[in-house]
Structure formats: C-alpha cells, structure tokens
Request: fold
Amino acid sequence: MMDYSAALMTDMYEYTMLDATLKDGTANRKCVFEVFTRRLPEGRRYGVVAGTGRILDALEDFHLDDEDLRFLSDRGIVSKETIAWLENFRFTGSIKGYREGEMFFPNSPILQFEGTFGECTLLETLVLSVLNYDSAVASAASRMTSAAKNRPCMDMGGRRTNEWAAVAASRAAVVGGFQGTANLLAAKMYGLKAIGTAAHCFTLVHDSERDAFESQIAALGKNTTLLVDTYNIEEAVKTAVEVAGPELGGVRIDSGDLAALAQRVRNQLDALGATNTKITVTNDLDEYALAALQTAPVDSYGVGTMLVTGSGAPTCAMVYKLTEREGVDGVMQPVMKKSKDKATVPGRKLAYRSYEYNLADCEHVISGSEEKLAAYTPDPEWKDLLVDFVDHGEIDPQWRGHDAIMNAHDHHAKALAELPITAQSLMRGEPVIPTETTVL
Reply:
C-alpha cells in the first residue's frame, strides 16, 4: 500500500483555522461537532451508515511525521508554534453515533465528536470523505440486495472507480448486504469473501471455447463458473456440460436480454442433467435491473458500475458542523448557523427510533445541553441509536476489523426489516419515516 498520512487527507483550511485559533486561544475550547445530512438523495427512502470503521482505523494513525510537518512549514501553511503543537498530536476526544449498517434519515446525528476545537476541526474532511462515499455505496447496495430478493449480490466494481475507492466500496457493499467482492486487496484487508474466475479474454486467447473451458476446469475444478456468452450461448452451455459434466458449478451470462437468456439456459442445463448448476448474471446491473430479474431463474448477481457510483447518488451530502462550544466563562453554549436553507440545530443530540407493531414509525432527535440531555427520559419503548466509538482517545476495538463488518452486515438486514415495507420500493418518494427534532 502507499505510505501516506491520514492527517494530510484534508483541506488546507483545517490547518489554517487551527493555526489562527492556537494564536487567539480558542483552539483549546471544548466543542461538539456533528455529522448529519439535511436531505436524502432525491427520491430515496432511507440511507445506510457505512465507513465508521474506516474512520476509526484512520484515527489511530492520524498524526504527522517529520516529512509532513516539513511540508506544512515549507509551504507556510502554519506557523512554527503550530508545527510544535502538531508534533505530538493525537485525538484525545470522544466519538459516538449511529453504528454501521444502521438506517439514517434527514437530520439524524450520524456521528458526534467531542473534544477541543483544534483536534476536532482537523478531522472534518477525512470524516466526510469517508462517510459520504461509503454510506452512498452501502445505501445503493441495500437497494440492490432488496431488489435481488435474497439472491446473493457480489461486488465487481473495482475497474469502474479509482483504486482506493474500489477498496472502500467493497467494504461498504458488504455492510449494505452484499456477500463478497472481486477486489483482492479489500478481501485481504477486511477478510471478505473473494470471488472471480475468468473473463472473455481467457476464452479468446485459446484456440477454441472447449480448450478454454477444459483449461479453467483443470485449474479450478468442476465447481467453477464458466463464462458462456463469448460466442454462442447455447453452444457454450452444451460444451460446458460436456467438459465438466453435470457437476459443473455455474455459468455466467454477461450480455443480452438477461431474463430471457437465463430462462433458456436454465432449461438447457436441466435438460442436460446439470440441474444443480447455478446461473450468475452481470452486465451493468442496478437495483431496477435486479427487480426486473426477480422472476428469472438467476442464482446470483455481479454488480459493478452502479454500485461504486452509488447508483446515481455518489454522495450523501453529509456535513460536519459545530453545534456546541465552550464560552469564555467555561460554560458550554449551543451554537447554530442561520444561513438561508442551511440552518443547523444547536446543541448535542440524543437519537431514538420509535415503533408501532414492530415497525419503525419515527426518528426522534433530542437536542440540548449535556445536563438537560442527562435528565431526559425517553419513552421506554424507543430504541437508542447512539453507541460509543471513542472514549477520550481510546478506540473501542469492537467497531473495527472483519467481525465489525459482518456485524454491520447483519445489523443492516435487521434494521431494514424493521422499516415499513415501502422503504424497499424503488419508486421515488419521501423518507419512509419522519424525523422529529426536539430542542430542550
């Protein structure tokens, strides 16, 4: 992997603000920052949180080495005093928020950061770049797996985005319901299931399709999946079963009218005795294409471009805003923007979800001072949506690594099942449940 500093994956103004506030004394003021989105992508019914584990991974390495500090100094980005402050920088604040795989809606307090202004402001760009992209991919993956109706979906989008986004997308896709990825680095880093066999060029480099199939089966065994649409699908399926026998693991179709072809291939496989051979389809699939294939005899899907681009919504428009800060008297004060169409809700937040007949019916966001929130008593039937990720600089390890991703995958399925069924509609509409905000 490239050797880079997570602390430089940021906008320059984070450091110029730090420099100015260190000089005027406000850098050490206690603050609360909040990540939220004002609206979901047009027509979407819900969003899925993803990327928090990656943020925690980056946070552990969020410091500057001598070369990084020299870069900031040589460019005149910060003063010598700020360079000295940064030499031993580590985040010592606290982070809480929605767990990965959880559903979010407009104004959901997805993450809250508590610490000094200086340390919290440096995190803004990194946090937003991770959450906006990963949550967009997870949200798209959720729509796709819902449309697939329990048929496995696999990530094949690595060649349709930049190399590092491909790794992030693989992880986020699994949070959103996918079962595995073609990206080997993502599989290695996060312990994900890796999938893949051969492309059309493998068939083309051989003298015949039969030679290609024999080669693949010799290398990978009869349980492999053979790509059958390089030339003529009917002839390819016949050859595939002749070479592998009825134990052939699967065939993949990557072009044409996928539903009609899948039906013909299924009937042909059954007629040849390959009744257990699975059918995988690929070819620029999105949630709408998957929904159209629900009645087709398809066993699994490979999804690429539309997954890694958020299926038309490549960002969640999340923002990172200061909602509370320490005053000159040492007392915490709620703050808010009043900009037109960009006003924010002041104060730190609690978040709950209420249910009726075991279905979510409302998101409840409670805002106020630390004292007022501590004294607040929610309805005992409401679910608390906030968990602790970091406590005074100490990262809770349960939210990182392979197990955290698998737990997020399972939580996503449970949380989606708790939403009204209209959440899974692909028709454009408003968020499936409202968000009610109360300021104490």
